[in-house]
Write a structure and sequence with these properties.
The chain has 329 residues and is α/β, with parallel strands linked by helices. The chain is built from twelve helices and 16 strands. Strands 1, 2, 3, 4, 5, 6, 7 and 16 form an eight-stranded mixed sheet that branches. It has an eight-stranded parallel sheet with strand order 10-9-8-11-12-15-13-14.
Amino acid sequence: METLLLNSEDVHHNTSMSELIPAIEEAFAAYERGDAKMPAKSYIDLPQYNGDFRSMPAYLDAGDWDAAGIKWVNVHTDNEEQFDLPTVMGTMIYSEPENAFPLSIMDGTELTMQRTGAAAAVATHRLAHPDASSLGIVGAGVQAYTQLEAISEVRDIEEVVVSDLDDARVAAFIDAFEDRFDVREGSISEAGHCDVLSTVTPVRDPIVGPDDVGEHTHINGMGADAEGKHEIADEILQNAKLVIDDYAQCTHSGEINVPWSQGILDDDDIYGEIGEIIVGDKAGRTTEDGVTVFDSTGLAIQDVAAAHVVYEHAEAEGNGTSFDLLGLA
């Protein structure tokens, strides 16, 4: 047996949103049913390098398939300036659960972008108005692209409003999608008054206020993935139907982590986890709902589910580079 090496281009090429979104939904469902194992994300802080490492292992049994793996990811904020390297890099090891053979080593950065978009699509499908046709995006970085790609799979998106302080990033985003959507630059408030809003920034002081969202907007809070990050005003979170991906991670490092640590939010403010909605234990959007919020920290089960989709597709298409990692050939 050989291990399949998949670089970022391979991962991108072998990711189909139409396959990835249901796989991510299955991962959430398996976790809710107790058919997944996911130890807490662990951190290695390296203040001397202005960075950290994070390890994210998981196993899930989706019924028709099971999968296991671990993602090793960093955040080094000085990388671009000092080393001409990305701030965030990830490596995914995807293994066969039955015998632990390393089936694939793949780029985890592209994998993260793809599964993050898919997670937003799962939440949008369950929590946004069925007739939603406009999408606002705050933050025009790399994560913004998969937000639009994925959410347009579950809603008939026609209008897109993107907001970012960097004009060049906005222009690049518009150029990438103007042939497929009515996409334009706008303010945070204009983006927030769309039917669906995705926030994908690293800010630590909220930039989306109560007056910046519509009465029935669904918000995907995707940017907060570490302590102190906070994009959405507390008042919105207090009054919205608030759905999270995982209690432990969200209260530690998700969108709610700051107001949670300050006692502004507590258990009574959380409607439930997305897995509870998927398996039918709790309702998704109802006619009585106003603003809904999905707090996404990004779970290791999502990485494993995404790696499964990518690997199976690459194997079927004969993509990637095979090599004898264990010297068994």
